[in-house]
Each structure stands twice: as C-alpha cells, then as structure tokens.
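Handout, page 2. Input:
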Amino acid sequence: MEDRVIFSTLESAQKMDIDTRNLIENHNADPHNQACKVPIEIYTKGYAHLGSANPSSLKRLANIASDILKYNLPIPPSSFIEWLARRIGGESKQDFTYMMDGDKGTGKSYTSAYFGGRFAMTMAEIYGGKTHDYFTIDNCCLLEDTREIVNLLQKAKQKQYITIDDAGIAVGARDFAEQKNKNFNKIHATCRTIRW
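Output:
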C-alpha cells in the first residue's frame, strides 16, 4: 500500500506558472540537492507519492517540506484551504467551524494561525483584496472570556478567519454549568460572521 499526501486540487495545481516549474526542475537537477528532491507532482498533480505506508514515508514527507523551506521554493497550494476559501467566499457563503485538540506544545495554536494566513492568501488570490482583509492578529482571541469572544465576533468583517485560541481556559469543563460556559457553547453552535 502506498501513501500519498494531497496538497492541492488539480485546479490549483494547474495554475502553476512556468517560473515555478523551472525553479522546481532546476532545484531537482542541481547535483548539490541530491539528498532529497521535491517532486514536481506536488505542484502539477497536487500530491506526492511517499512509497509504502510506514514511518519512512513520514520522513520522506518531512524531507520534502524541509527542502521546500530550505531552498525557498514556493509553498504548494492546499486543497483544504482552497476548499475553505471557496466555501466561505463562494456563492453559497457558508461558514466553517472547527475545533483542534491535542497535547500541550503540539502546535495547535501555530497550525491555526498558519491556516488563517494561508486562508487569507487564498481568499485574496481568488476574490481580490489584501490578505489583512481576511485575517490579522486582531482576529484572534487568546485566553479570553466569552465577552471578549462576542466583541471579536461583532467587530469581525465579512469573510474573515477567526481564531479562538485556548478557549478551554476561559470555559473549563469544571465550570460547565456556569453562564460563561453556556454562552460559549451557544456561540460555538450558532457562530456566523457577516457574510453578505
């Protein structure tokens, strides 16, 4: 069984310009870069073949990601972020709510901020405007109470990415019956920003 990681939809991958293609092909042709090559398929087909599904396939993915950063290659488009942008910015104007769970120090906050940045870049590319029209640090509530979350949602502009980080601190499980926890659950269940 082979693993492959999907990086983008075919639509995004087909938009790769000739300069990007040349950059990747030149990188792969350089004899100094023989330790790990960045597969052009990441950009053209939207996925990378990683071989057998075992720990070494994860290492190959890490090497590809490392090479992309080390040699300042373009970051491949993301099918998830593109889907998210089209869901929120498209004709149906849907919203999207997600919760991220994990142990302390595993990168939940970083990942959420990264998603916000990639979302902003994709929205600006597809629908116009600047990245800060879709996400800035002002779109984040960090260790805040429900009143601050409500204030953030009221100030949010159309089609923006909002992060409520470490919400469990503000609404802990031991306080499940308190009003702030009930309010947060209502916000999470019915959250909408101005989409029209």
